[in-house]
Design a protein that fits this description.
Helix content is 20%, strand content 30%. It is of the alpha+beta class. The longest helix has 18 residues, at 41-58. It is globular and about 45 Å long.
Length: 157
């Protein structure tokens, strides 16, 4: 388990404009809902990984690091119930990069209203199940300086 010094605090807002980010769209499927007919909380956590995968792929580092970045913290605040077939915009951004950690900020919106938002922290390991390692300088630069990346849209406009 990563130690406290591997994690980082909230980002400096003045730097956030340069951080890598992406927006992907998904639609609430029947399997994303619970008995109430609203989206199940697990959909948010799956979509964090969908957006993370898309962002790391756009940055060209997915194959080098995926599979060795366990989540160590996830926090989400649910603000609006979504239903089957609702279209969801998933905004996903690098909030901070620590020695071996990365903090993501996410916001999921539908029809112009925020449905959920929060943060997730992952730690880079030397191998799956291994020990935390520092981010290579080139990856740190990509995460902090690549800005907006091409997204994945289901609907144009």
């Amino acid at each position: 388990m990563p130690s406290a010094e591997d994690r980082t605090s909230a980002p400096d807002a003045s730097d956030a404009a340069t951080h890598a980010r992406i927006t992907v769209q998904r639609r609430i499927e029947w399997s994303d809902t619970d008995a109430s007919g609203y989206w199940h909380n697990t959909a948010v956590f799956r979509w964090i990984e969908v957006a993370e995968t898309a962002l790391l792929q756009r940055l060209g580092i997915l194959n080098e690091i995926y599979g060795r970045m366990p989540r160590v913290r996830i926090s989400a605040e649910f603000r609006k119930g979504l239903r089957h077939k609702d279209l969801v915009d998933i905004e996903f951004a690098i909030a901070a990069v620590g020695r071996s950690s990365v903090t993501y900020a996410f916001r999921m919106s539908s029809a112009g209203s925020v449905a959920a938002e929060g943060t997730a922290v992952a730690v880079l390991l030397d191998r799956a199940g291994g020990r935390p390692v520092p981010w290579p300088d080139e990856y740190r630069q990509l995460l902090l300086e690549s800005g907006p990346q091409p997204g994945e849209s289901l609907v144009t406009g």
